[in-house]
Structure formats: structure tokens, C-alpha cells
Amino acid sequence: MCPSDKTLGFPFRSNTMEMRLPKTEKKRIVIVGGGFGGLNLAQSLKGTDFQIVLIDQHNHHNFQPLLYQIATAGLMPDAIVAPFRNIFSKQDNLFFRMARVEKIDDEKKQIETDIGSAHYDYLVLATGATTNFFGMDRVEQHAYTLKSIEEALELRSAFIQYLEAAVSRQDMDENECMHFVLIGGGPTGLEMAGALAELKKNEIKKGYPDLDNDRIKIHLIEMGNELLAPMSDESSATALKYVQDMGVKVWLNTAIEDYKDGQVILSNGEHLQTPMLFYAAGVTGDAPEGLVKAEMARGNRIVVDPHTKVKGYEHIFAIGDIAAMPDPENGHPHPQLAQPAIQQGKYLAKYIKKGCPSDYQGFQYKDLGTMATIGKKKAVADLPWGKFRGTFAWLMWLFVHVMSLVAFRNRINVIVNWTMSYFSTHKKYKIITRSPRVLPKAKEEELIS
Ligand SMILES: Cc1cc2nc3c(=O)[nH]c(=O)nc-3n(C[C@H](O)[C@H](O)[C@H](O)COP(=O)(O)OP(=O)(O)OC[C@H]3O[C@@H](n4cnc5c(N)ncnc54)[C@H](O)[C@@H]3O)c2cc1C
């Protein structure tokens, strides 16, 4: 008899038994994480004589660069996710298991997960990074973040719920519902700020005609002295001008210190009242425990050699955001971006196929540039062959993002949606899909009939 998922939790939590996998004489490569790194590695190992086991805590690959579009009602999740079982339906040597890897035991060459253990001959960690709150517990407890589809939907639902409350309830003080505070002036914070500013200008004005649009305030807080710090000075300055012109209040050289009684406390002594605190100001490596011999770099990243091998281990590799491989040119680890993860995944597949020779040429990162979008026809791009801004950069951003989506169906879906929204100011997906957050209860007589 099948145990009830209500009593045990899905997927029938059991870390005492061995995970069900086909028995084989082939060598087994276990890949933990199906993000950009793990996915590209697994795909590049198609047709090889290994048994590939891909383990991820989610059942889908998620295209993180477009998560903000889900959060701001521009796209539905199925436009940017692809179930692993669809992606790998034609890859006979790959077995997907949905589980969270909790521990590595290299003595036994085994991983422990919440659905059981599994043996490996080679283990690849591609677990990415998670949000770093730098010990600010209250911020961690209350802030919205953006790493997964669940978080994006949570954010969208809350945002629309607060708009509905603001338009309907007399007791909702303007500060309570209508101020959005975004922490972190990197691409995620900036893209969120730009998308919210566009929503305010178009969608909210038309969709909520009885709401005083001027009451909506968007604050973007950045600790450093510029936005998009890793990009060129020109791009940082252009991004700042764009977002300020769109009505966002930018606070540079300002850090968040706490979130207390609904107020964001800033390092300059200011307090900003808001129920919608969004946090994208830091990440930390998300490695399972057990790598006792590994060397850890800044940001909890695992130090790897030029073949992506974890220092101190013969058969364990790490790629993407979780790995710190010093760039031979400047000694800094590669940036935590999609391209290093993709390129390392493809490199490692070649290295393993060759039998992992020590004299094999090490990984060389090809920097394809960086771009960020702020709004319609407003983007910045630093590419190896030039720096661009405005409409041309925005068109390039659209093209690159559509082409990078994993599934052909995703690409069509996004093209259709973006084309429609270009000619319309209405966002189609203003849908609350999560249980509403508990707002203070209004008295009957205070509801506007
Ligand atoms: C909102 C946002 C916007 C971004 N925008 C851009 C952009 O515009 N351009 C760009 O280049 N980069 C961007 N990035 C960064 C980019 O997405 C990452 O650098 C990239 O995803 C790293 O790939 P990865 O394979 O290392 O990890 P990820 O893609 O994060 O994948 C990690 C996977 O591991 C799984 N996992 C983690 N721990 C476990 C565990 N213990 N057990 C099982 N599974 C586990 C996760 O579920 C996830 O599927 C953005 C990131 C975010 C969050």
C-alpha cells in the first residue's frame, strides 16, 4: 500500500533506503542540480556509455533571468520553465529523480537525499546559489525573494493583493500598501524596479482607475555608489538615469539594516514603511554538507581546479554559481552568471568523455558580455564588440533571452506574449494564485461598497 502523502510529506520522505534506480554495469554520474550548469552537462552526455542520474529538488528547469516577468504579471510560468522529464524524454541514459540532496559521503561514494541514498562513480555539484541575508533574520523572515517560480508567484500574488486592498479599503494607510522597497541595485533589483514603474504608469493607471496613482512609490536601495556595479561606468550611469526618469527613487550608498514593524531601516537613518520588501542584495553558495576536505571561497563557493574538480577529491566536480574557479587572467572566480555555468557544464562533459586526463586543457571562460533591461526600449549592453543602450540594446536583450530559453515551446510562448504586450498596456496575468497574505482585518463599515 502506498503511504499517504499527507502523513509523510511528498515525495514520501525516506532517507534510510536506497533510491530506486536501474541496476547497471555502467559507471554512474550523479548530477545535483538541473540549472544552467547541470542541464548543459546532462544534455552533453547524451549517447555516452554512462548512467546519468540528474537530481533536483524541483521537477523543472527554470530560466531565472525572466523570473521578474512572472513576478510582475508579464508572463505565465509555463513560458520560462521546462519539466525535466520533457527535456530528457529522448535521452535513454538519463534518469531524473526529484529530491533534495542533503549530504555527501565520499568514503562510501554515496549521496543522501530526502528520498534515499544513491551511489556515484562521479558526482557533479551544480546546486547554484541561494539568497544571502547576511544574518538579518527579520529581513529573511519577511522579504520577498526571486530564485524560483514559487517565489515569483508568491511575489506577484502579494503585489496584486496589496493593490486590491489599497483600492478597496479605507483603513489602508497609503504607506502600508503602496510603497514598494527593493533592496539591491544589481540586474534583478533594477529589472524589478523598471517593471514595477511601467506597471504603475500603464497598467495600474488603467486597471485601477479609482486608485490615486501618485500614491505608489518605488524605492530602489543600493549599498554601493552605482547601479549594475559589474558593468561599465557608462551602462551604470545610463541605467540610473533610465530608472530615475521612470519615477523610481534610487538611494545609492545606502544599506538595509533591519525590517521592523513594517518599516525598512536604512543605514542613513531613514525608515521606509512598506509591506512589500523585495530583497536581491546578495547570494551564497548552496552546497550539501559533507565536503570536509573542500576549500571554500568567498560567498560559500567551492574552490575547483581548471577541470572543475573539487580540491581534495578525485571524483567530485562543481560547476556554475556554486564553484569558484579562479580566472587565470585576474585570479577572481568567474562571475555568477548563466554563461560560466553553461560553458563549464559543456566543458566537463568533454573532460569526462576523454577519461579525465590530468594533461587535458583546462576550462577557458569566453566572456560573451552582460546586459540588463530597465523597461520598454530601455536596456544597456556591454559586449566584447561594443557598448550599447536604448532601443538597440533592448532588441538585443529580447533576442538573446528568447533564444536562450530551453524549449522551442517556451520561445514561441514568450514571443507571442511579448508581441501582444508591446501593443497593449494591459498585463494579462494579474492573477492571485497563492493563498492571500493575511492583511489586518477591515471593519465591515470601512469597506467601500
Ligand atoms: C532573478 C535572477 C535573474 C538573473 N538574471 C540573469 C541574467 O540576466 N543573466 C545571467 O547571465 N544570469 C542571470 N542570473 C544568474 C543565473 O541565473 C545564474 O548564474 C545561473 O542560474 C547559475 O546556474 P547554476 O547551474 O550554477 O545554478 P542554478 O541555475 O541556480 O540551478 C541550481 C539548481 O540546483 C537545484 N538545487 C540546489 N540545491 C539542491 C539540492 N541540495 N538538492 C537538489 N537540487 C538542488 C535547484 O533547484 C536548481 O534547479 C539571474 C539569477 C536570478 C535569480
Structure description:
- With 449 residues, this protein is of the alpha/beta class.
- Among the domains are: 8-57 and 99-131 and 284-353, FAD/NAD(P)-binding domain; 137-281, FAD/NAD(P)-binding domain (3-Layer(bba) Sandwich), CATH 3.50.50.100.
- The chain contains 12 helices and 25 strands.
- The protein has helices spanning 5-8, 36-44, 67-71, 84-87, 137-142, 149-168, 174-178, 187-207, 233-245, 338-353, 390-404, 408-422, and strands spanning 27-32, 50-56, 60-62, 81-83, 94-98, 101-105, 110-113, 116-119, 122-125, 129-131, 179-183, 217-221, 249-251, 256-260, 263-266, 271-273, 276-279, 283-285, 296-297, 301-303, 316-318, 323-324, 370-375, 378-383, 386-389.
- Strands 5-2-1-9-21 form a 5-stranded parallel sheet, covered by helices on one side. Strands 13-12-11-17 form a 4-stranded parallel sheet.
- The chain is globular, with a radius of gyration of 23 Å.
- Residues 1-8 and 442-449 have low confidence and may be disordered.
- The structure holds flavin-adenine dinucleotide.
